[in-house]
Design brief:
globular, 430 residues, 83% helix, membrane, mainly alpha
């Protein structure tokens, strides 16, 4: 068993610092902004919203199909760290490629963005699966929260630099803000790779298994079928995954579509970018605090607090029409966004049978990304049908409410007992 040590925990957590550059600078920040105003220049606001929603949905569908198989491969090979590095490299190279896409070539930008999302999501799968390798069970909430907190801080720092470049391009020897945003894609790719190195250096996995890769790929599909059976034998774990699928849909949709929504209702680009920065820096201490809430009051209660907040945020956002209201939303979302993500991950880790972490986290990521298929496309479709982006955003309410209700019905202690008992039962059959 891997010993608990600070270097491995901090090395693991710094991957959140690394890849949050993509989720903040590209996914939540400049790509939706640049897509609407540069890559898809000339398209109507509702049309570009639909395009962006479909692009995110296509990326998510691909990740949905890959996640459980990748998780099964990682468990059989015992090489989560190596696979994480492969996907992180693929994602960073695709991100850098956005620099060379010219105005109006939205389809080319879409393909590179989809590739980058696949790299980001695949890397996250193996990153999440390493949580139980570096952290004892008693510290799962705090270690998970540490990762998200560093992610908010790291992503926020790089985004701050990029915003400064965008607002004052002449200070960096750049001709205009367009050049600054394109350069931000290069910087994000470099940041992602450089800060992945602490995980590569300090996280140690158990000795990898010597299995031929072709056999692993073939057997992974069989293991995928077995995973479905395993989850069906763990009803509390399955129920949590269903709840997570619903409520994380709303969370991810807000992350991916917030700037597009702000532009669609006429808010200024600078206000939107500064609001996103506020979210990042508030998210750093807030995620740490949610880790403490998880330790003291339980992870589920912390998640439910966040979901109630998101319900209020969604209702408020449908009626806002000024920049100060968007700033208020940014502050409130910053308080809960990292918390709901961190506590969901640590709660699920408690419901996973030991020895099946990558396999089960493959399903966890699959459910999260499958949710992201529905959310952005739903917002875009409802906006087109109603001819109103405000109506589109309200469609997220049902996801938060249904997810919270199902989460309330999960018996956490029973789920933990079922997961541990499954390992004993499964081992006895071997």
């Amino acid at each position: 068993m891997i010993p608990d040590n600070k270097k491995s925990i901090w090395g693991w957590a710094f991957y959140d610092w690394a890849n949050s550059a993509f989720s903040t600078v590209v996914m939540a920040g400049f790509f939706p902004l640049f897509f609407k105003e540069f890559y898809a220049a000339g398209a109507a606001a509702t049309d570009s919203t639909l395009y962006l929603g479909v692009i995110n949905s296509i990326a998510s569908i691909i990740v949905v199909l890959l996640s459980p198989v990748l998780g099964a491969i990682a468990d059989q090979l015992g090489r989560r760290k190596g696979l994480l590095l492969i996907f992180a490299s693929f994602g960073s190279i695709s991100t850098a490629g956005l620099y060379w896409v010219e105005q109006g070539f939205w389809l080319q930008a879409a393909c590179l963005y989809i590739a980058a999302v696949i790299g980001f999501s695949g890397g996250n799968l193996f990153y999440d699966a390493l949580l139980t390798v570096v952290s004892p069970e008693k510290d799962l909430d705090r270690v998970s929260a540490l990762g998200f907190a560093l992610g908010y801080l790291g992503g926020g720092l790089l985004f701050s630099l990029n915003v400064w470049m965008t607002l004052h391009p002449e200070s960096f020897g750049l001709s205009d803000s367009t050049s600054a945003i394109r350069l931000a894609f290069i910087l994000t790719a470099l940041w992602w790779i450089i800060f992945t190195l602490p995980l590569v250096l300090y996280v140690r996995e158990p000795t990898p298994r010597s299995i031929h890769f072709s056999r692993v790929v073939k057997s992974s599909f069989n293991q995928l079928r077995q995973t479905l059976k395993k989850i069906s034998l763990l009803p509390q774990t399955f129920q949590f995954l269903l709840a997570y699928w619903l409520y994380i849909d709303g969370v991810d949709s807000i992350v991916r579509m917030a700037l597009d929504y702000g532009l669609s209702i006429g808010l200024d680009t600078k206000d939107l970018i500064l609001a996103l920065l506020i979210t990042q820096f508030i998210g750093f201490p807030a995620a740490i605090q949610f880790g403490r809430i998880g330790n003291r009051l339980g992870a589920r209660l912390g998640i439910l607090i966040a979901l109630v907040t998101y319900i209020l945020v969604t209702i408020f956002s449908a009626f806002m029409d000024s920049a100060w209201q968007f700033y208020v939303l940014a502050i409130v979302i910053g308080l809960v966004q990292g918390g709901v993500q961190a506590l969901s991950r640590s709660l699920y880790a408690r419901l996973v049978p030991p020895g099946y972490t990558a396999e089960f986290f493959g399903f966890y990521n699959m459910m999260g990304k499958f949710a992201a298929v529905l959310g952005p496309a739903l917002i875009g479709a409802v906006a087109i049908l109603s001819e109103s982006n405000r109506v589109g955003i309200l469609s997220l309410l049902v996801l938060f409410i249904a997810g919270g209700y199902i989460l309330l019905r999960v018996d956490i202690l029973k789920g933990q007992a079922q997961a541990k008992a499954y390992r004993i039962t499964d081992s006895s059959k071997g």
